[in-house]
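Lab meeting minutes (informal)
Scribe: AK
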Amino acid sequence: MKAKSLTAVALLSAILVGTGCASKGAYESAAMTSTELVDTRSQILAARSAVDMAAVTFDDLVTNAKPDLKPQYAAFSKAVDDLNSRALSTADQAQDFRSKRDKYIKDWKADADTLTDAELKKRALERMAETQQSFDTMAVKVQDARDASQPFITTVNELRRYLGGDLTSAGIKSVTDQVPRVNAQRDELKKRLDTVVSEIDRVNSELKPAAPAQ
């Protein structure tokens, strides 16, 4: 199975475009996007837990092997299945993201261009540029997490296949050296997912329709 990117991260790419058109009113689009970001934050945390479980069950299977290896292997296999269920191909979504993001900014600019007050128009375009920069910054963090997800998912899937064909004491012993590798990939991926969550929190605080801080 070809390594794929985490579903929650892929879904976030679609959300980053700022769903809804500018004609609905900026505050309505912002509120809707804010709600979706909260939901995606929960999905990313769930994906983070799935990453942890895949690494933990592999570690248990290899470093705490029981006389009957089947239950531990089954737990590891189930954890990998759960991880894979949160993964999908993102090529189409990435293209869709770019198209929708461009349309979102284009529609916002079109609305700003209808303003006749030069100062308000200038401020609207400045705010549009700030929001676009926030989305672009988040998109970079999402891509970083996506890049880190691929080697980890590939590794645990390969290890499952390897042990599925040699579920013996000797087979377990032969992959003992893979535990540090799996843990290192897990830690790097979790770190990047945590960064995405932090970015979501930052952008979400900017999008919420609320009075400015005094």
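Next up, CB showed the second protein from the same session:
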Amino acid sequence: MQRWESQLGLPVHRPAGKDHSAVLAFSSELDQWLDSRPVRQNLVSASQLVPSAVPQTSEIQAFLAKAETMLQKIDALVLRSEEAHHLLNLAIEGLSQEPSRRELRSASRVRRTEIGAA
């Protein structure tokens, strides 16, 4: 704020009268100072030159309709992804249990062989 005060002429008042004391500013003076700045002047003149830059209501509604369609498609993709994930988990569980079944089958064969040999 001190730099803006000294370099850019920011309108502030120091009640204590010291260089580094608290400052007071009035909104009317700040608004007037802002309006006199080159950046603010360029923004105001640019908005006056290009009134078509502000989207029309119909354009906004069309954009919102497209956005809604995209959201619906994304929801469908997420649902399919969750279903695929669930099926993949079931397949992984089945594969992890498969060796146990094989071991049980081979163990029962060995036992049958031992019983048949006895």
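CB comment: The first helix runs from residue 2 to 8.
No objections, moving on.
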